[in-house]
User: Fold this.
Amino acid sequence: MQNGGMMTNDNLFAALRDAFPADLDTLAIETAGDIPLRYSWRDLDRATARLANLFANLDLPAGSRVAAHVDKSVEALMLYLAVQRAGLVYLPLNPAYQAGEMTHFLRDAEPAVVVCSGANFGWVSKLAFTHGCGHVFTLDTDRTGSLLERASFHADEHTVVQRAASDLAVILYTSGTTGRSKGAMLTHGNMLSNARTLKTFWGWRPDDVLVHVLPIFHIHGLLVACHGALLNGSPMVWFDRFEPARVLARLPGATVFMGVPTMYVRLLAEPGLTPEACRTMRLFVSGSAPLLPETFRAWQQRTGHTILERYGMSETVMLTSNPYDAAQGERRGGTVGRPLPGVDLRIASPDTDSGNGGIEVRGPNVFAGYWRLAEKTKEEFTADGWFRTGDVGHIDTDGYVHIVGRAKDLVITGGFNVYPAEVEATLDDLPGVQESAVIGVPHPDFGEAVVAVVVPRPGATLDGPTLIAAVKSHLANFKVPKHVVVTADLPRNAMGKVQKKALRELHQGLFTP
Ligand code: AMP
Assistant:
C-alpha cells in the first residue's frame, strides 16, 4: 500500500509503537511484586529493539517460529513484542507443559528459536535440538538468562520489519479438549483489526490504567489485555501471578481489569472487595469461560460495578461483547452480548424450540487456518466462508448471544439433545449448590446418560436423589440427570475452563462396565 510515497507497515508492532505516548520516559509498566520495577515506554522500545536485532542477527528464514515456554514476566512480554517487531512468528506455550506435550508442539511447529526457563533448559534444549531447532535461549523472571544477555550486545535502535496484514504473526495452540492440539494461525491484520475495534468499543481513555493479572501464553492475557493497553498507550500494573488480596490493593488508581470467572469468584471471597477499593475503576471484563449469573449479581452488589462479559476464541480473537456504553443497552449476566462491529455471527440449523444451533462467524478477525492442517481447516469453514466455532448457542430478540456449550459437549440421550448449560443453570439455582458441570456418559439404553457433577457451597451437604427430585420440577424428564456426583472441586485449566473431557473420563464407567 502506498502512502505519500511511503509503504505503510501493517506489522502489528508498528501500530503499537505508534500508540506509545510522546513522552517515552513516562511509565509503561509497573510490577506488583514486593519491590516494584518500573518500565518506561523507552525501556520497552529499547529492549524490544535489542531483541529484534538479536533475531535479525540469527539470519532466520522468513516465517520462522519463536516458541516461548517461559513464566510470566515483563521481559516475556518484551520477547513477544520483539518477535513481532522482527517480523517473525510467535508461539506462546503454557510453561506448565511437560516433555510429552512439548514434543508435539516442537514437532508440529518446528520453531527456529525456543526460549525457556533456566530450570527447564536441560530437557527443553535436548527436545528442541532433536526436533531441528537451532537456538535455545533462557529467560527467567528475575531478568536473567542467555536471551537478555545476548540481546544486550545489540543496538537499541531497530526499524520495524515490514509486514502485510495477511502475514502470519502468532500461532496459538488450542487447548485441545479432543484429540491433539491444533495451531491457530493469526495474522497481523486479525489481531490489529480486533484490537482497534475493542479500543473504540470499550471506550479506552487517555488516562486508563490496566491491572494485568492473566497469563500471557493465551489469547485473553496477550491479545486482549496487553494489546488493549499498548494500543492505547496506557500503563499496566503487572502481576506475574494472580493473588486476590494483592490485586485488590492495586485497584485504587487503576481503571480497567480483565479476568476469567474464577478470578472474580476468588476476589469476591476477599473481605477487602468494596466499592471503595473499586472507586477509580471504570471497567471489569470477564471471558474465556462462562461467568455464573450469581457471580455477575454478587459483583454488582458488592462493588456497584457491572461486569462486562465478552466471548471469543483463539481462532477468531474477540467475537461478541456486552455493551460498554449504556446507550447501546444494558450488560446482561448469562449472555456474551452482541457481535462486535465488523463481526458477522449466525446460528446454523437452530433448534425449533430453543433456537440453539452452531455459532458461525465471519470477519477480519477470523484466523488464517490451522497450521499445516489444510484439510481440517477446510472442514471447519462452511462452503460460503463462515467459520464453525464449535460453540452452540442462540441469539435472543434483543440481539444478545447466549452460549449453551460446546457442540462436542452436547449430550444426546435416547435421541434427545440436552444442552449442559441449561441443566447446569437449573442446578446452580438450587440451595446449597456452588456450581455444577453436566456431562454425557455412555449408557446401555440411552446411548448417553446425563450426569451432573456438583460442588456444594461451603458448609452445605448435598445428596444426589434430592437434587434430582428438585431438577425434575424444573426440566423435562430427558434432561434430568440420571446420576449426581457430589465433589469438592471441578477440574479446570489455567484459563478457568472446566475440563469436561476429564470428567467424562472419570465417570465413563457409571453405567457400563
Ligand atoms: P480459547 O481459544 O482457549 O480462548 O477458548 C475459546 C472457547 O472458550 C470458546 O470457543 C468458548 O467455548 C469459550 N468461551 C470464551 N469466552 C466465553 C464466555 N464468555 N462464555 C462462555 N464460553 C466462553
Q: What stands out?
A: The chain has a mean pLDDT of 95. The CA atoms of residues 211 and 237 lie 5 Å apart. Residues 174-175, 219, 287-290, 309, 311, 313-314, 336, 389, 391, 403, 406, 495 surround adenosine monophosphate (CB under 6 Å).
